[in-house]
Design a protein that fits this description.
The complex is a heterodimer.
Chain A (H helix, E strand, L loop, with lengths): L3 E3 L4 E8 L2 E8 L2 H10 L2 H8 L7 E6 L4 E6 L20 H5 L3 E3 L2
Antiparallel strand pairs in A: 1-6, 2-3, 3-5, 4-5
Chain B lengths: L2 E8 L7 H9 L4 E4 L6 H11 L9 H15 L2 E4 L6 H14 L6 E6 L7 H6 L21 E6 L4 H8 L4 E3 L7 H11 L8 H14 L26 E5 L4 E4 L10 H8 L9 E3 L2 E4 L4 E6 L2 E5 L2 E3 L4 E21 L3 H18 L6 E7 L21 E10 L2 H7 L1 H9 L13 E12 L6 E6 L2
Parallel strand pairs in B: 1-2, 2-3, 3-6, 4-6
Antiparallel strand pairs in B: 1-7, 4-18, 5-14, 7-8, 8-12, 9-10, 10-13, 11-12, 14-16, 14-17, 15-16
Helix pairs in contact in B: 1-3, 3-4, 6-7, 7-8
Classes of the chains: A alpha+beta, B alpha+beta.
Chain lengths: 106, 457
Amino acid sequence: MNTKVMLKDLAYARSGDKGDIINIGLMAFDKEKYEILRKKVTPEKIKAHYGPDVKGDVTIYEMPNLNSLEIVMRNALGGGATRTLALDQTGKAKGQALLYMEIDTD
Amino acid sequence: MKRVRIGSGSASWGDMMEPGIDLIEQGNIQYLGLDHLAELTLSILQRWKAKDPTKGYIPDIVPFMKGLLPPARKHGTKIICNSGGANPEAAGEVVAKIAKDLGLEGLKIGVVTGDDILPRLQEFRAQGLKFKNLDTGEEDIDRVQDRMVAANAYVGADSIIDALAAGADVVITGRASDNALYAGPLMHEFGWKFEDPYWDKVGAAVTIGHIIECGACVSGSMSSQWRSVEDVGNVRNPIAEVDETGAAIISKIDAPGGLMNAGTVKEHLVYEVHDPHNYLMPDGVADFASANLEDIGPSRVRVTGIIGKKRPDLLKVCMGYRDGFIGEGQVWFPGPDAFEKAQWAEKWIHRRLEIMNAQYDELRIDYMGVNTLHGSVPKFPPPYAKDMYECGLRFVVRTKTAEEADRLKRIPTWLWTHGPVGSASGQPFPVRPVVSLWPTLIPRELVPTTMYVKEVK
């Protein structure tokens, strides 16, 4: 049965910046939820979720030892912390936005 | 088995000093690291140094050293900091004076230099280095070279290790990586070298450095577990107790405040990392995906299993170049109909920009309370628009000149008297210059660091 859930029901997130890159550590609450994230959270879905705010590629690295995904979003910070017009200059709030992403858990 | 205890006393310029004092007085630590630099801090510091050659370091080093040096002398704690910024030599002089005034004769201050490559850019260009931009892919710094205000390589721990070997009680660096402030003392204490068979140990040092380098961000600050933090507001910074195998126990002082568990350590381990299998630092490359985190007691987390690789041949360089100006302002609207008033005001702003023939490179208007932080992610207009009791508009433009930024940033303040009834705009913000980042690489051998030790007489 398909059930829609938000990532906030499966994981914590913490995000930060390096240059024009925002990176997000997405930490599943347990192994089972990590497996769901691993299958369902794709670069395409992330790009679609953030829309025009993330202009570059999205890469996802797996960290099964920590039940976590490391998500790297390029050209995502308006040129970097000192150049961006965003209030959130270092992308620290952006990881929380990912927690609103909906996925099917089938 | 030999063990070394090292604490983290600052995560950035402007961070609190008290948690570091607590670590020295109650944490039984041999070393305290202080990180005071962010990616473009050096651009500000270089500007200060250009105006006054005795400046260009982090001014916080003055209150920090006044507060930390007396307890550090008493407890035998050594302090490693990158607060020297654009002028480690001047910072060394200032700290020596503070130490003398405090009666700390015999204190040895190590000063590390060599990271600043701004004076050598022409020389490197002549050798054929183009400094490709890692963010944008632009091949060559030609376009921005005449606007360059800072160029610093992220250097490793080599000279920090040398300074400690020479007996330094305080080590002051420029743009040493945050990480090197911690890897350095560990490598010095355990005799780990930048060669086989030490790379796993160096990888462990780099990882432990990463875990504690942002201070309280691993011990309850910035945490998803914020509801569980004890004694809210009483910040506690982390301690790493490292053994000669490279295993570590991460803890905090035994007193209420903060939060420390395998979850908070994990939160920081995944923070601002790119490829976790290849966490690149000037001193080594760590594989976090082999790390094991284990709660072994209250506020005690054991970290084991780090794999390391040889340090990279290329060092990261952060260059900063002048790139226009930002003008910013806010205006707030009360209910009834706060959101609708904000929408009316946005229309007013766009019409005004047209009438003024505004010249800007980028414009951003945020609805505060709706999409300021998450931009295009939340639905707009929000489903709760009608229920908003208050709503703000944030107006920001980037322009080529300071004059144009100053002209345009007045627009939101005009809405104070020209907006819908009840509008309020508070104190205007000053125009700020933009220094953009040009991240690039340089061969390690072109950026040797050196150190000297100065004794307080």
